[in-house]
Design brief:
Ferritin; Aromatic_CoA_ox/epox; mainly alpha; PaaA_PaaC
Length: 238
């Protein structure tokens, strides 16, 4: 792979001065977040408000929906500054096809899918584009709160025989559905991201870290088994 861009890019004007390749690569990352932050709020967080069993949990679900929509708006601001095409011209990631049908299922989306988002966002916290780097760093406390909520509540649910099997089946399905979240193993886009210093990790490295962390959650913290997964994903999309 050619030498990685080492300098900081401080604003949209500096990004555009580097040329279309940098802006296009950056735009793919930013627009993905524009789409997927809104999708997560709409298909995971909003339905959970009705499913939440207590007023406090409804309040927490409302808070997380609000924060996810806030993330969408903040990424969209970066997109507008760069003059990117409409992010909604492409569909959100396939993990958002998951149907939240129970409070347990929702809790596991926070513990698992939001953990995948943290793995990706941690990488972007070192991004060469300073506005994206700063935004990701500023959003990390909220993302960690979402995962912490999911993990803490999952531990409570795991202790109840009435919800344990629902938790296990939700976790297995979500882990399997989240693996493509990180992109193809042989992604040309990822090579471009790393060359321009937008990302550091390969897709497989990020996916392996997600598997490691979710294995700790399921096996060590919840006492559940882990689904058979492959850290490589030879999918057809980047």
């Amino acid at each position: 792979m050619p030498q990685t861009l080492m300098k900081d890019v401080h604003d949209a004007a500096e990004a555009c001065a580097l040329g279309d390749e940098y802006v296009t690569a950056l735009g793919k990352i930013i627009n993905s977040h524009v789409r997927n932050e809104a999708a997560g709020a709409a298909v995971f967080d909003e339905p959970s408000i009705a499913l939440a069993p207590t007023p406090r949990e409804k309040w927490l679900a409302c808070r997380m929906a609000m924060e996810e929509y806030g993330h969408h708006l903040k990424f969209n601001k970066l997109a507008n500054e760069l003059g990117l095409e409409d992010a909604q011209s492409r569909p959100p990631l396939s993990v958002f096809d998951y149907q939240v049908e129970s409070w347990t299922g929702y809790v596991m989306t926070k513990a698992i899918v939001d953990l995948a988002e943290i793995v990706l966002m941690e990488d972007l916290c070192q991004c060469s584009y300073v506005p994206l780097r700063r935004l990701c760093r500023s959003l990390m406390p909220e993302e960690r709160f979402h995962v912490g909520f999911g993990t803490t509540t999952a531990k409570q649910l795991a202790a109840d025989p009435a919800t344990r099997e629902d938790m296990r089946s939700s976790a297995h399905r979500l882990i399997t559905m989240t693996l493509p979240f990180f992109g193809r193993s042989d992604s040309r886009n990822n090579e471009l991201f790393r060359r321009w210093g937008i990302k550091r990790l390969t897709n497989d490295e990020a996916r392996t870290e997600f598997v490691r962390r979710t294995r700790v959650l399921l096996c060590d913290e919840l006492g559940l088994d882990y689904p058979e997964v492959e850290p490589r994903w030879p999918g057809t999309t980047n």
